[in-house]
Amino acid sequence: MEKIRDIMTDDVECCTLLDxxxxxxxxxxELNVGAIPIVDQEKIVGMITDRDIVVRGVAEKHPxxxxxxxxxxxxxxxxxxxxxxxxxxxxxAEHKIRRLPVVENGELIGIVSLGDFAIHDMxxxxxxxxxxxxxxxxxxxAQN
Length: 144
Description:
Blueprint: H1 4-7, E1 15-16, H2 21-31, E2 35-40, E3 43-49, H3 50-58, H4 85-95, E4 99-104, E5 107-113, H5 114-119, H6 125-135
Parallel strand pairs: 1-2
Antiparallel strand pairs: 2-3, 4-5
């Protein structure tokens, strides 16, 4: 079974607590990504998804200058790089999330997403179940 370290994306762009919602949105556009981890120094403190910007930012009529901490998801679910792909799939399914920060000693070292499972052609039934559960979720949570 593969370890998360082997399938994660390790070149992760981040924003900081000093950035605002507009700056996060611009970075998402430039990088063509739907989530940006938020770090304070080297420690991950939150995550902002494109959905967070829409639901917690725009829909709640916050201006683009809104601080990231006002819209980020700060109750993070993360995983250690030595965990198995099965463990990651289980966590993602349980929490109905599509992206999972990979954290070692409190520092963000990568991110694993549903796409990473697909790219690595996982045949593990647990991963398939996770993908199915996440794909069928109702969109009531902000972090996805």
